[in-house]
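G., the chain you wanted modeled:
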Amino acid sequence: MADDPMPLDDALAIVREVVRPVGGDETLSVGDALGRCLAADVIAPRALPPFDNTAVDGYAFRHGDVTGQGAAALPLQGESAAGIPFSGALPSGVAIRISTGAVLPDGADTVAMQEDCRLEDGAVIIDPVPPKAANVRFAGGDIRVGEIAIAAGQRLRPQDVALLHALGVAQVTVKRSLRIAIASTGTELRETGATLEAGQIIETNAAMLAQSLGNFPVEVTVIDSLPDDRALTEAALAKAGTAYDLIVTTGGVSVGDHDHVRPALASQGKVLFWRLALRPGKPVLFGQVGGAAMLGLPGNPVSAMVTFLMIGLPAIQALLGAPDRPAPGFIVALAGDTRKSPKNREFPRARLIWADGVPKAELYRDQSSNLLTSLSWADGILDLPTGISELKAGDPVIYRPFAALLG
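Predicted structure as tokens:
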């Protein structure tokens, strides 16, 4: 039916279709670019390794100078050390001492490991003789000049920065930081430290979501909590739509008399989907207002976090121009029996335990969506598909770690 909740994959397809990367690229030094998303491919200006070199400490020689499979003796003539190459080409019929990473001189094509050699009367005895090209790392074996070293959209990690340094790349073009606004809704919400009156609670969702983005190239503004007022909600969305790339709200997206986010978005922008076939987090709203994408999450903290991980992060990746990749996760065995609705894709909180030397996913004792303790206890979520209603201990399940999702 048309009003049935939408499958998560269909919702993600809409996000990928309508969300476009932000403009406004900037150039940064490599040292300042950690965590930023590349706006253009980085093309290797030099080869790695830049020269033929050895992978081991040992002795370099011409393989054609030795015969047979037994031991061979070659006069020792000189050395190639890391940073101090052997001078000239290697003469025929001799060997040189060579250190790991040192330049392999012209003419040399094989390196015998030090453990397979001994010195006698100014000659090196190689026993056994290794095959031709043994222990040689050839120039360009890692990457050649002109190849794509790191593709556009990659969020730069320490290992990416190391590769850029090795290539001699001093500056890169990156996407500008995203501007994200986060606001909770609810007349009952108060800030930490406030004196609470009857029916009031401390606001936690906005801070939780903002701090979950610490590894992303974003500038987050936490807007004051919105009271349950239609006109104020409309005004806040319209204003935020002119200043941010993404607006995230929590609460006010269901069908209650005081849920104003969906009609406010419909009046100020466009609703693209609402209600997903998942648990927790069925009432998820997505659309556009002004120049911003808009994501309305449920108010219960677990629902807010789970739907932010599964919808909000893909939207952020799309805004950054990052490649479309599945959420990180891996398969483990379930530690105990559980049941679920076959109509929903479910994301229960879990953590890994070791049982008989095997990692298994243990579920939190209570999967109610209001329990902040379940998020604090867990180190990830399971991803349980539709169409099944019961799982037994030992069944394979997809486990998605928080650290990988938010890394």
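The chain has a mean pLDDT of 95.

Shout if anything looks off.
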